[in-house]
Prior knowledge:
- A 6-stranded parallel β-sheet has the order 3-2-1-4-5-6, with helices on both faces.
- With 262 residues, the protein is an alpha/beta fold.
- It has 2 domains: 2-34 and 111-261, HAD superfamily/HAD-like (Rossmann fold, 3-Layer(aba) Sandwich); 36-108.
- It has 12 helices and 6 strands.
Amino acid sequence: MRCIMAFCVGFRGRSMQRVDPVLVFDLDGTLLTVNSFPIWVLFLGFGGVRGLSMRVRLTVTRMVVRLLVLRKLGRMDHETFLRHMQALWHFATAGDEGAAAQRLGTLLLRYRRRNMAPVLKLVTDGTLDGVMATAAAEEYAQGLGRRLGLPNVVATPGGRGSDEPSNTGERKRQRLLAWLEERGWSGRPLIFFNDHMADVPLMRDSRIVCWFGSRRTLERAKRATPNVRFVACRGLREREMRATMAHLCQSVTVVQLQSYAG
């Protein structure tokens, strides 16, 4: 694969455009086998943040419980819940945010998907470019991405304006495409690692979707994005994943080269 990528990076077509793919990773249910959001909520509300006085700790716990009750009763949507959680995180971790995020990251890494190791290695060793695009809060997603080997992370920023939604659906697509443009990576084929229907807008801009969701949802995703190639990856072993990635990257690159050739 290194030979293929070296050729792709050095390719001089009519547009001087790189043709090797960019790997785009969702976090929850893809890089991790679980949803990180409830773990973050419990971590913040029930003792994960250290060094708090008893009064502050009880205040944080009461606020988290209140948010959970309102959400459970349907009186608060997820977007509002996330905003409150991000604000509460900064309040509770003032002066200790880095250490708290590190401890949370250690907890979340227990749930990393094992067969993704050879794929992430392609990014960490410089063979391919990659970015994690997630709805998770950047307060912990940035550090977690780096520990997974992905220094490039597009997550939901804290302190955003009321007109700026979380990094999901069409918003995730828009932010990722803008980020790729800033990096000079736009126009390159995307291989998207994902597991749920919320990311249909980004799937439609991808050449291949490596799927980690349920088989039933996979059929729905295929119907929603008929021009996208899907590869079911959840059950693959590491060796099978490595071989699959080599084949996918080669085939995507060849198609891109052919499109430039005429």
